């Protein structure tokens, strides 16, 4: 039986949230094929309780490869492990997150096992007549959505945008198997030495992890006005996001861009100021819990999906909102 696999991620012995988001995707595909779902984790120091959380969240089996030298991501070593496990277990499909490690590892592995890979998918499904994975992703700058298949090679491989789906509700009664895969010395690639991580200084923000996002669009008019959003985000302990229009105009850096050609986010609160709401941008915020739209155009598409739509001049609304917040403190 060919399983669906998801690639779990860990940092400092703790599972990353995207590990569980992928199980939502994988469970749907496995059920469509009437097969099992397995999660592969490479790392060190992950507790048995954390591994059980993968079972409770939808995995039928968890393959865990553990060694102190696997604590930090190494594409060469991780790929050696994946290639051998793929040859041993022959999965039908492998899903990974479109994170920095997923985007690095999956193409490397795909070349080694001579199969295809579709990157940065937003939708996944199974073609009923063939069992092929239907992999949908934005193309041509996000202006169209392309659906791609890998009909002649296995496993089928895809990376999925973080925050593009919500993790499943855990079921404490689910049963599954945790398989500890012994580490082999020949998997270790001695050409690479891990020295540490570096975050780019300056304008970088990891908005994918933000619980609160204050985003600005073309209606902000100029870069100077983004200070209003920064001040508001500081008051709410959030982060600043932007549309592609704002980024293309040089008002803010690309790491803040939300949408099909930027980041997909899923905050508890999203506030969009001066954003009309293109299809590409709305696709990047659709899993937000609460959406607030501020725009003087009553017909703005963002208003139509917002939980709270404020029709008004953002240059009046934002200062008043800031004033209320400071007064409340």
From TrEMBL:
Q: Which family does it belong to?
A: Belongs to the ETF alpha-subunit/FixB family.
Q: What's in the keyword line of the UniProt record? A: Electron transport, FAD, Flavoprotein, Transport
A Pfam family = ETF_alpha
Question: Which GO terms of type biological process are on file?
Answer: fatty acid beta-oxidation using acyl-CoA dehydrogenase
How is the cofactor bound, as the UniProt entry phrases it?
Binds 1 FAD per dimer.
Enumerate the spans annotated as Electron transfer flavoprotein alpha/beta-subunit N-terminal domain: 4-191
Put simply, this protein is called: Electron transfer flavoprotein alpha subunit
Record carries keyword Electron transport = yes
- Output the CDD domains linked to this UniProt entry: ETF_alpha (cd01715)
Query: Bias regions of kind Basic and acidic residues — which residues?
Result: 166-176
Quick one: which residues bind FAD? 243-244, 257-261, 274-281, 295
Which is an annotated GO molecular function term of this record? flavin adenine dinucleotide binding
| Cofactor(s) listed in the protein's UniProt record | FAD
What's the source species' lineage? Bacteria, Pseudomonadati, Spirochaetota, Spirochaetia, Spirochaetales
Residue ranges, annotated region (Disordered)? 154-176
For this protein, the record's InterPro entries field holds:
DHS-like_NAD/FAD-binding_dom, ETF_a/b_N, ETF_a/FixB, ETF_alpha_N, ETF_asu_C, Rossmann-like_a/b/a_fold
- Please give the organism: Spirochaeta isovalerica
